[in-house]
Design a protein that fits this description.
Elements lengths: L2 H6 L2 H18 L3 H25 L5 E4 L7 H14 L1 H7 L5 H9 L2 E2 L4 E2 L4 E2 L5 E3 L4 E2 L4 E2 L2 E5 L5 E5 L2 E3 L4 E2 L4 E2 L4 E2 L4 E2 L4 E2 L6
Parallel strand pairs: 2-5, 3-6, 4-7, 5-10, 6-11, 7-12, 10-13, 11-14, 12-15
Antiparallel strand pairs: 1-9, 8-9
Helix pairs in contact: 2-3, 2-4, 3-4, 4-5
């Protein structure tokens, strides 16, 4: 890991502190300005920082050796998203607002079509690596992760990152787990509790 990667490891703590300060400011001086500041720090700051990072290092699939002193773009994205994995209710709230969650994923760098339905307990691990068509339905407790980490015999920790692609009109049943690089064709119906890993579903 590079020095920059180690510095970014401090972001989740820094982000949490900024949220607390913004919340205190809003509670002590409620106004449109302090409310907008709270929303900005809570939901917009991390994806905007990631998009700035992508201006220099565009988001792309790849393979990294995590225990070597090289740049790892996934690590940067992971640290910027960490708070939402730790406190899922922050993210779940956005799914109560029509189209808000899809717009939020687009801000991270995902491509999301129109009229996508998200149940409150969907879990997207890599928010910048989703490629979703129109009119897709995600059932209860669906999990999508675009990365995997494996340990080689020589001790190297190898990370593979590939986007998940879901075609228009697909129905993803409750409890489905979708992994690295999986492609769900258009109008597919994925049954309850299915699991797809490291392959294309045809």
């Amino acid at each position: 890991m590079t020095l920059f990667g180690r510095i970014v490891s401090l972001f989740p703590l820094t982000h949490s502190a900024l949220i607390v300060l913004a919340a205190i400011s809003f509670l002590h001086h409620p106004s449109i300005g302090t409310f907008v500041r709270l929303v900005f720090v809570l939901y917009l700051l991390p994806p905007l920082l990631l998009r700035l990072y992508f201006l220099k290092y565009p988001s792309k699939p790849g393979k990294w050796i995590l225990n070597r002193p090289t740049r790892c773009d996934w690590w940067i994205a992971h640290q910027l998203q960490l708070l939402y994995g730790a406190i899922p209710s922050l993210e779940a709230f956005l799914r109560f607002i029509p189209s808000a969650y899809s717009a939020w994923l687009r801000l991270w760098g995902s491509k999301v079509g129109k009229d996508v339905y998200w149940t409150p307990r969907v879990e997207i691990i890599d928010r910048h690596m989703m490629r979703i068509g129109d009119n897709v339905v995600f059932g209860h407790r669906v999990i999508c992760t675009s990365h995997i980490i494996a340990k080689k015999p020589n001790g190297d920790l190898v990370l593979i990152l590939r986007p998940i692609r879901i075609g228009s009109g697909a129905l993803i049943g409750a409890g489905v787990r979708i992994g690295v690089g999986v492609h769900i064709p258009e109008k597919s119906v994925i049954p309850y509790n299915a699991e797809y890993r490291f392959r294309y579903v045809e």
